[in-house]
Amino acid sequence: MKIYEKAPAKINLMLDVLHKRPDGYHEVEMIMSMVDLSDRLEMSALPGDTIIISSQAGYIPLDEKNLAFQAARLLKDRYDVRSGVHIHLDKKIPVAAGLAGGSSDAAAALRGLNRLWNLGISQEELKKLGEELGSDVPFCITGGTALATGRGEKLTPLSAPPQCWVILAKLPINVSTADVYGRLRADELVSHPSAARMRAAIEQGSFDGVCRELGNVLEDVTLELYPDVAHLKNTMIRLGADGVLMSGSGPTVFGLVSKESKVPRIYNGLRGFCKEVYAVRLLT
Ligand code: ATP
Fold first, then answer.
1. Half-sphere exposure of 243 (CA within 13 A, CB side)
2. Is residue 98 in contact with ligand 1, taking CB distance under 6 Å?
3. What is the C-alpha to C-alpha distance for residues 216 and 245, in angstroms, rounded to an integer?
4. What is the DSSP string of 230-247?
5. How remote is the CA of residue 95 from the centroid of ligand 1, in Å?
6. pTM to 2 decimals?
7. What is the DSSP secondary-structure string of 60-107?
8. Is the Cβ atom of 29 under 6 angstroms away from ligand 1?
9. Which of these, 1, 87, 93, 279, could form a disulfide with 101 (CB 3.0-4.6 Å)?
10. Where does the record place the GHMP kinase C-terminal domain (predicted)?
11. Binding site: which residues?
């Protein structure tokens, strides 16, 4: 028996860091949306007690460091599952890119294994389990568009933003999320993006409003470390994207575009110097 799950990437329409908490995590406010760029997981039952991870992508760990492995291990331990699984990851989401590829794989593994092993776990419980694997995993369990607070695990579902094209571009730079957060001086930030205003723009179905309210306090940190990312962002603006922002801790930069006729020019203009460019839709 085989189970398939899609694991879509997310983008941050806004990301604010309020302060660093005594437990070391940062208190955040983020509005996240899924986009139609997905990894695909194929899960097959194994007779023994083993967990095997395979992938066509040569650059991710295939051992217990893989988040899909950790998801399987967690379910086996908590629910005393005696059978094993082979999870094949068909990776399409760029790795260490600010698109939550690993978190989405973990969420898809939890959803898929819940079915494969007939565990009957509720979505609420899956989100709690996901929280143990990473702050973005609960959002990846539910998907759609949501406001995330706390360390990213407290979710308020939002209506879908106005449909548009999302052009994603990633330079060959791997950014460490921990490093970017480590360099951020949250108490010295002079301006903050507004979750309330972005939420209002989404609820009003205002594409212009969404573009206007895009903001990410991690952007300045990553752009200072990697000036090429700043150049990529400026190029996307110059090519005519309606709103441009870095996702998560980067380095992926995304542009929102309402008119389909503009997409080829922006896509081709970026492909001139950036190998990884994708034109996708929001998953609404
Ligand atoms: P986030 O936006 O949540 O910070 P990210 O998109 O920046 O995540 P990921 O693609 O999730 O980053 O990868 C971060 C690290 O996690 C990588 O360096 C990789 O070694 C590790 N990792 C573990 N499991 C996976 C997986 N299934 N897919 C991709 N990376 C994984």
1. 21
2. yes
3. 7
4. HHHHHHHHHTT-SEEEE-
5. 6
6. 0.95
7. S--STTSHHHHHHHHHHHHHT---EEEEEEE--SPTTSSS-HHHHHHH
8. no
9. 93
10. 198-274
11. 94-104
Amino acid present at 108: A
Tell me the per-residue pLDDT of 14-35, one tens digit each, with 9 for 90 and over: 999 998 888 888 899 999 999 9
Query: How far is 8 from 107, CA to CA, in rounded Å?
Result: 10
Tell me if the domain spanning 2-158 has CATH number 3.40.50.980.
no
The residue type found at 120 is G
Catalytically annotated residues: 10, 136
Query: Ligand 1, residues 95, 140, 174, 252: which to mutate, most atoms within 8 A of Cβ?
Result: 95
Q: If you measure from the C-alpha of residue 60 to the centroid of ligand 1, how many angstroms do you get, rounded to a whole number?
A: 8
**What pairs with residue 46 in β-bridges?**
84
- Which residue ranges make up each domain of the chain? 2-158, 165-281
Whether domain 165-281 has CATH 3.30.70.890: the reply is yes
Q: For residue 217, what is the DSSP state?
A: T
Helix, strand, or coil here: 32?
strand
- Do 46 and 84 meet the contact criterion of CB atoms below 8 Å apart? yes
| Digit-coded pLDDT (tens) for 87-140 | 999 999 999 999 999 999 999 999 999 999 999 999 999 999 999 999 999 999
Q: Are strands 276-281 and 165-170 parallel, antiparallel or unpaired?
A: antiparallel
Read off the pLDDT of residues 24-66 as tens digits, 9 standing for 90 and up: 888 999 999 999 999 999 999 998 889 999 999 988 999 999 9
